[in-house]
What we know:
Largest sheet: 6 strands, parallel
Number of strands: 9
Shape: globular
CATH superfamily of the largest domain: HUPs
CATH topology of the largest domain: Rossmann fold
Radius of gyration: 19 Å
Distance between the termini: 43 Å
Amino acid sequence: MQTNIARSLLNLKKNLSNLKKSQKIGLVPTMGCIHNGHLELIKKCKKLKYFTVVSIFVNPAQFNNQKDLKKYPSQEKKDIEILKKNDVDLVFFPKTKQMYPLGYSTYIKEINFSDILCGKYRKNHFSGVLTIVLKLFLIVKPYAAFFGEKDFQQLFLIKKMVKDFNLGVKIIGIPTVRDSNGLALSSRNKLLNARGLEIAKQIYLNIKKIRNLDYKYTKDLELYLKKELKKSGLNNIEYIEIRETNSLKHPKSIIRGKTLRIFIAVHVEGVRLIDNCKLN
Length: 280
């Protein structure tokens, strides 16, 4: 099966115009540096027999730090090889000037859940995420789109945007994919050296330890995890928060019957890593 590459909006439209009306499109938005986490999204899309479109675009609007944007890893040639091997139907490589033409000034702003967790530390990050996702939805017109639960807040906000705007796109979340040490797969992991990877794997190892502890108050459990992470060499902790899965509310008490999730962001040797995990 041939994998087509589209590098312009016109070329993308030409490829999609050849589809049968009955063929449903599945979209897997990425920023490249394809890893096994992305491949799980692609596998799910193909299993559902959708025409699989993978977009690769490092979105400048979601970076609040230009240094972070410049050092974001890229491997276009290798990505294309991987996607061809996995029988992706179409790869979309939009250029920045196509997505944000000169004079561009329209952005999505979600007002209730964008300034907590990652949003508290990355100003306008989720505005950039929601804007590019909405643009991709309008351009590709997918029946369904696939996102990983590693970026749980992002997944939550995209689902909310789809509901709020009546977009009609089916959002499918896929559980976090981890390496043999439990480290959540991320393109940013490529920026870590051997020592950094050794430290980073302590994130999930420590999260697993606390899942069955009998704590009454969320703050106490958060503080306990923070201490354990620091003992493991993770000294630059941005946040540790326990939130309700369905609402992202921050409860005072750990109550049975409520599905809770622990969220964490840390910096390891200058690389920002996030993770989250069900607590009960």
